[in-house]
TrEMBL record, chains A, B:
Pfam families: DUF7411. This is Queuosine synthesis-like protein. Gene3D superfamilies: HUPs. It comes from the Archaea. SUPFAM superfamilies: Adenine nucleotide alpha hydrolases-like. InterPro entries: DUF7411, Rossmann-like_a/b/a_fold.
Length: 197, 197
């Protein structure tokens, strides 16, 4: 069974992919890009480290524009990021029958509610898997530490292949300072494996 | 890392155990018993099939009595089963640092809410893992079918090592008919492996 994992090169989507691989899925990694930056290249590097096939999905820039509009209007990023994630899942669900991502139990956004998950699966006739949903942050930290060598830095200093990297880039293009909208927080990228997966 | 999985011999707790084993945990299976029946023996058989160490934890019959009181008062089993599961987790969390069970995304009871999970982990300084929480019923059915040979029958005909089997026995001992309180539903037990775990 092929499972398509939304993949940023970060520790959560990497760990999700590993769990599904260990369960016997034929895992393919998908990185979404909106044509602002070639930031998908970081996910490509991590995919190679994990030894898993990787594909870049280019979606309409309009989705990213709308997300940035929401963030500029709100003054904070959560609704804009939630919007983009739901939109991406809706689009990919038309093509891929088993979709997964790195949503964790303790995440706030992006995260689908239980009824949104049910609705997505039923309307699109797909399976949506979130293998980290039953694990707390402490458990995930220990597993990540066991499997991965990670690079951890402030968001502005560590470009990733996630929504945020292109959102920030588009904000700068439009003359806005992302630092005024995003709280300072650490990002991490998987740059090596500590044990065989 | 040792992970202790609450284990009934059913497909959900078996699949949870397998996921944790594949992730690298040193998995130990725990079956709770309240001294009414020797129903733990079914879990012992399945544990042997899975090749995982198994322990029976005998807890006070009073907990089961209280659960039956709740069910008799309510006229339906969900609150009584929820009561017993939360009580069991509270007690085991004093002894085991990493506790897991087979709670699924689409389960209603027994299931801890997000704040109950947070509270359990923080108060007891443990990790509580529910590896099936990010998987829907269709995904679980496919995985179960891939890994296990199962026996599926009506509850009354398939004794298991779960709370329900002893609850039903205690109700009968007290002169009540479990069929008037439990909806008719299928139970399943893992009786063989289809592939190596």
């Amino acid at each position: 069974m092929e499972a398509y994992v939304l993949f940023s090169g970060g520790k959560d989507s990497s760990l999700s992919a590993i769990i599904l691989k260990k369960l016997g899925y034929d895992v393919k990694l998908l990185t979404v890009n909106f044509g602002i930056l070639d930031s998908y290249k970081y996910a490509q590097e991590t995919a190679e480290i994990l030894g898993l096939p990787h594909e870049v999905i280019t979606l309409e820039r309009e989705i990213l524009e709308k997300s940035v509009d929401i963030i500029l209007k709100d003054g904070y990023p959560s609704n804009g990021i939630q919007f983009i994630h739901k939109k991406v899942l809706e689009i990919l669900a038309d093509k891929y029958k088993i979709l997964a991502d790195g949503t964790r139990r303790d995440d706030k956004v992006p995260k689908l509610s239980y009824s949104e998950v049910q609705s997505l699966e039923m309307r699109k006739n797909i399976e949506y898997l979130t293998p980290l949903m039953g694990l707390g942050h402490r458990t995930i930290r220990k597993l990540v530490n066991e499997y991965f060598i990670i690079s951890e830095k402030e968001s502005e200093e560590l470009p990733k292949s996630d929504y945020e990297t292109e959102i920030r880039a588009l904000m700068r293009l439009k003359g806005y300072d992302p630092l005024k909208y995003f709280p300072r927080h650490k990002q991490s990228r998987v740059i090596g494996l500590k044990k065989e997966i």
